[in-house]
C-alpha cells in the first residue's frame, strides 16, 4: 500500500483496498439525496455533507482503526420534495436493490464491517428497515447511523435558533458555508427561512402521514437559514466527524 | 344498514360496508406479529393487542366519526425473534406487497381514509417507510400509528418499573391479563423478566445494528413481566384506545 | 409443555410450539378470503369456516398425531367479488410471497409437515399451482386441501337443495348459523338466493373465462341461503372436521 | 390479404394479420411443455399436440369465425419430470410474465379475443389462476381451455384401456402415431406402460402434494402406451379439433 | 440411444437426451422474434432462420462434437416493430426470466455447454448483457452468437446490394426463398424495398435512441428484398451453418 | 437564475434547475463504474472520466443549447473485475431500476431530453438494451452514448500503441494524468501493461462468453499504461468533450 493518507475507495487502487480489507478496515458508505434545498443552497447538500463528515472522521481515527469511505450514493428517497423541481428520487425497492448489491460487493471485496452513514432525514426509517433486511439476506454485519444523529449534541450546542437539523436551515447552511462556501447563494439568504420541523423519524406526533414538503413550507426551507455562519458550520462538521470517529474506535474494534 | 354496533369489517356485510364507505368511515388496519413472547405469553400478543385497542377505540368515537376495523394482519417483521422458535416472519417486500393490495382494495371499496395501527416494535420503521411509498404509489391517504405511541402517556403513568412498552413485559403481560387472562401462563411469571430495552425505532443509540433478540435476553423477555397486573392492563388498554379515539375525532374529520 | 389442549399457534408460547415441533406436529394453515357474502352473511365467512374446521379437526385427532393451527390468513383472491364492495383481494404474486414467507418460517420453527386448508373457491387453482412452486422453491413438504373437498360427502348428504357448496348458500349459511349465529342477518334470509354454480376449479365447462360474480348473481348469492338451518351447519362442520382429522391420521403419520 | 388458407400467425404477414384483427379473429395460443414422455415418445409431445389440435380446429370453423394460431409456447411447468432428464421447466412467475407480454402484444396488435389452448396437465391449475390474474391486469378478454378437456368425450369413447389422457399413454401415443409417426420409437412400445393416474387438476384425492413423477412411475409412463394405434390417434385429434371448433363458433361469436 | 440422426431436443426422448448429455453435447438454443417482415415475408422469419441454421450446423459437425438443438424461442424484443401490427414483443425482464429458467433446466438435465444462437437484430445487445448476468447468476458456461455474425463473411460475399443483413431484405428474403419458398408472397416482392440500415448493435452512430422502425421505413423493409434469389439464400444458409459448425468444433472441444 | 456558469445539477438550486428545464436544457447523465484499474490507477477512473467529459462538453456548447450534468452514477456492471478485489458491481435489474427512477425523476423535473454518457466498457450493451426498454416504459426521449465512442477519432489519432481505449491503458492513464495527476501511482507505471483487447461490445469474435478479466490479464491492465502522458490525456479529454458538444448542438436542437 502506498504511503498515501487517502481514505476514499474510488481514489484507492484495488491492491491498496485489498490491504485495507486484510487489515480489517471499516467501510463507511455515505448516502444523501439530490433534492431542493431552498433558494440559497444547491440540491446536492445532503450527499456532500454525509461524504464530508465521513472523510473527516476517517482521518481522525487512530491507526488501529483503518477506514475506507465508499463512493457516496447521491440519490435517496425524496418524493416529498418533488413538487419543488430539481429533485431526484428513488423508490424504496430500488434503494433496497442498490444497497444489497453494494453491501454484497463490499463483502466480496473482503471487508467485514460496513457502516451506512446517512445525510438525509427522508432516508432514516427506510434505511433502518433495510439494514434489518440486508442483515438477514446477506448474513453480513452492516450498521446504520446518520451523521447528524452521531453529532446530535454538538449540533444542539452550536445552533442558536434550532434544537437540531431541519432542512436548508441554520445548520445545513452553516455547514455548506464552511465546506463549500462558493455554493451558497448569499443574495438569497434573507429568503432562507421557514417553519420549524422535527425530522419525521424523530417526530413525537403519534400519527404519520406522508405529506409534500410544500405543504409545510413555501420557500423549501424549514428553520432559519439566515442565521447561518461558516464558524457554526465548521464546528458542526468537526463535531459530527469527531462523534463518528469515536463510534468507529469504540464500536468497530479489531477482532 | 342493520342497527348493529359492529365495527369489524369481517363481521359486517358488503352492503353495510358500502354504507359506511359512503358515510366517510375511517378504516383502521391493525397489524401485529406472531412471535415468541417469553415463557408466559402466547405468540399472538402483538396482533391481539393491536386489534383490541382498535375495536375499543372504534366504540369510543362519536357518531360523526364512523370507524371500521379491518381484519388484523397477524404477521410482521420478526427475524430477530426467529432463534427462539414459534415465530413467523415476513420479508420487507412481502409486507409491502400485502399492504399495497389491502390499501388498494380498501380504496376500491369506496373508503377514503386508512389508518394502519401497529402493535409490534419491529414493524415501526418499516411501516413508516412503506406508508411513504404507498402514498406515492396509490395516490391515497394512508396514515400510520402504533397503539403504544398514541397511548404513550398512559403507559408511562401506569407502569411501575418501566418507562414504556418493552417485550413480554410489565405492560404487555398486564394487557393480556386484562383482555385474555386465560392465555397467561401464570406459573411461568417469575421467569418473565429480562433487561430493559428501548424500541429500536426510539433508541437514542446513534448506531443501529440488527441483532437477534436472543443476544439481548435469554428468556425472550425485555422488562418485568412479573410486575404485571390485570388492573394495569385494563388501564393501558383503555387509555390507548381513548388516545386513538381522540386522534380519530380530531384528525380524521368529515370533509 | 403445559397441560393445555390448545391447538392454535398464536395461543401457544414459543416453548410449547418447540415441543410440538419436536413431536412431529402437522401445521394446518387455514386461508380464507374477506369478500361479499350476500345480504345476510358477513364478509369473513370463508376465513371463519376454514379456521373453524381446522380447530375442530385438531381436537379430533388422536394423541399420536399432534396438530397446530397457524393463524388464519384472512385474505385471498377475490377480484371477482370486487364490484359488490366490502371485498379485499390479493394479487397472485402477493399470495405467493406471503405463503412462501409463512412456509419458510414454519420450516425454520422446526416443523416438517404443513397442510394448507383452504376455505375459498377462488383460491383453489392458485393454491394448487403455488403449492407445486413452493415445494420446489423451499424443498419442504407442503400439502393442500379445501375443507369442503375433504368433507365433500357429508356436504352432499346434508344439503337438501345443492350438490355441494356454492357461495353464501344453503351450506355456508348453515355453517355460520351453527358456529357464529349472531352474525347471520336473519331478516335478509329471504333474499339470500341466487343461481346454482359449480366452483370454477370443479367446473366441467371446457372453457374458462374470469368473470365478475355480479354477472352471475345480482344478490351476491349462488345457491339457496334461505334453506339453511343450524343443524345442517353443525353436521357439515363436524363432518368436514372429521374428514380432515381422518386425513391427518392416515396421511401424516409419524416418522 | 392473400388467398391463403394459412392460420399460423408466424406464417402470415403483418398486413394479413391486421386484416384478421379487423375481422375480429380469435387468437388461439397453444402451450405445451418439453418434458420426458417415456421411452418411446419425444419430449415435445405436449407442445406438438396442442398446436396440432389448434391448427385443425382453425381449419374447421366456418368463414364467419376467423381464427389465428399464435406461435406455440414449447415450455411449461414440468418440475415433476425433472428427475428423468431431458426436461425443461419454467417457474410460475416466468410463465406469468411470458403470458402477460404475449397477451398484451396480441391486444396491441388489434385482436379482441384470446383463447389459450393447453396441452400439458401440469399447466392446468396454473393457467386457470394466471388467466384470472391477466384478465384483471390487462383488462382484456382471455379464455383458457385444454384440448383434452374440450375433447373429453371423444377421448373417453376412443380409448380402450383408459378413461382419459394420462402421460405418454394410450392416448398420447396414439396421437403421435397419427400426426408424427416417425417420432414414435416403436421398439420401445412394450416398455411404454405405467400405473393409471388422474390429472392432478382433476383428481378427487382431497389432499394435494407436489410429488416427482418418478415416485409414480419408473418408466415415465402413466397408462398404456402399448395399446396405442394411429387410428385411435386420428380419431382423438379430429374429435378434439372438432370440439374446439364448436367452442369457437358458439362462444366467440362476432360482436 | 437410437440410430437416429435427430438433433432436435423436442424430437428426442429423455433417455436419448441423457446419453447426449453424458457425451458432452453442446446445446444450441435458437431465439428469434415474431414481428413484421415487410409485405412479402411472414412474421416468423427470425425464428425460422435461427433454427434452420442451428439444425444445419448440428448435422455438419463431426462425431466428436455432439450437438442438440433446443426448442426455438419464437419471441424476442420487438417493441420497435409494434406500430406495424402482427408483432409480439417481450419485456427485457421477461426475456431474462425465460432464459434463466431454460439455461437452468438445461444445466439440470446434465449438459455443460449452452450456446444461444440469435436470429434477430433487436435481441443482440440484450442477449449480450443477459449472458453476462446469467453466467454470474447460474455459474454455468453459456455463450452467445448470432447466426449472421458467425456467417458475416459469406453474407457479405453473397449479397449483391447490401453489406450485411438488414430487415426483410435481400438476405432474409433469399433465405426464406431457399428454406420455406411457399412462405414468400412473390406478388409483393416489388414493394419489398426500403432504406439501408445498420443493425443498432453494429451502428457507428455514436448516439443511440430507440426509435420505431416505422420512422425508418414505411414498407417495413430495410434493404432490397426485391433482389433476393433462392440461390443466394441457400448459399447464405449453408455458409452460416458451416461457420457455426466450425465454431462448435473449435470452441467447444471435449474436456 | 444566478449568473453562474455552473452546469452540475447538484451544484445548482432547484429554482435554477427549473429555469434550465424551461429553457429546454439537455440533461447529461454520466455513468461509470468503481472497479480495479491496474496497479497504478484508482478504482474510480470510469466514473471520473465520464463526468469530466460531460462537464467539459457542457461548457463548450453555445448558449442556445443549455446543458445540465446530473450527479454521476459511480456504479456499473463489473462482475468481470470482482476477482481482483476493490470492485463494486450492480446486477442488471438493479441498474435498470436505478436508471428508471432517475429518468422518471428528470422527466418529472420538467426536462425533455436525457443523454446517458457512459464511461465503462462493461456497461455498453446493457445500457443499449436498457435505453430501449426505458423508452417504452416511460414514454420519454432518452439517448445513450459513450464518451469514447463520441471521441473515437481523436482517441485513435492520439494513442501511439492502441487503436482505441482498452482498460487502465495508454488512453485511460493519460486522461487521469491530465485531469487528476495526483491519483496516478507513477511508481507502478512500469507494471501497467497487459494484452490488447477489444471492448466486448465492439468485438468481432462471433462468440461471446462472459469471462473474468483475470483470465485475460494478471495485472488488471489491457493495453499499455506505461506509454501514457498527460499531453495525450488532455488531447483525448478535450477531443471527446468537443465531439460530445458537437452531438449536443446538432442532435438536440431546440423545438
Automatic annotation (TrEMBL), chains A, B, C, D, E, F:
<keyword id="KW-0479">Metal-binding</keyword>
<protein>
    <submittedName>
        <fullName>Creatinine amidohydrolase</fullName>
    </submittedName>
</protein>
<dbReference type="GO" id="GO:0009231">
    <property type="term" value="P:riboflavin biosynthetic process"/>
</dbReference>
<dbReference type="InterPro" id="IPR024087">
    <property type="entry name" value="Creatininase-like_sf"/>
</dbReference>
<keyword id="KW-0378">Hydrolase</keyword>
<dbReference type="Pfam" id="PF02633">
    <property type="entry name" value="Creatininase"/>
</dbReference>
<comment type="similarity">
    <text>Belongs to the creatininase superfamily.</text>
</comment>
<dbReference type="GO" id="GO:0046872">
    <property type="term" value="F:metal ion binding"/>
</dbReference>
<dbReference type="GO" id="GO:0016811">
    <property type="term" value="F:hydrolase activity, acting on carbon-nitrogen (but not peptide) bonds, in linear amides"/>
</dbReference>
<dbReference type="InterPro" id="IPR003785">
    <property type="entry name" value="Creatininase/forma_Hydrolase"/>
</dbReference>
<keyword id="KW-0862">Zinc</keyword>
